[in-house]
Amino acid sequence: MSAQTDTPASVTTVYQVTGMSCGHCEGSVSGEISQLPGVTSVKAVASSGEVTVVSAAPLDDEAVRAAVDEAGFELAGKA
Fold it and tell me: Which keywords does this chain's UniProt record carry (predicted)?
């Protein structure tokens, strides 16, 4: 069950992250994920726990998990 939208130039994936509760949390998660190669856009929403990532190609789930862990949160999976 993956919320992916593919266009010729990008892939959009929505991840579910647990533990975010404020704007600072959103910024921490966004900052870590945005450093992954190929990521062009990240939008984290604490109220829903959803993190929408636009990238040039599909991302490795373990790389995303590591970035979320580095920010101090847990990747629950794809929304």
Answer: Metal-binding
Report which secondary-structure segment, H or E, holds 20: none
C-beta separation of 69 from 32 below 8 A: no
CA 60 to chain centre: 11
Check residues 4 and 15 and name the one with the higher pLDDT.
15
- What is the torsional sign of CA 3, 77, 48, 56? negative
**Residues making up the chain, counted from first to last:** 79
**Region 50-76: what's the mean pLDDT?**
97
Identify the structural domains of the chain with CATH numbers, from first to last: 19-73 (3.30.70.100)
Phi, psi of 42, deg, nearest 5:
-140, 130
The pair of three-digit structure tokens given for residue 75, joined into one six-digit string: 């990747």
For residue 79, what pLDDT is reported?
84
Residue 32: strand pairing partners:
none
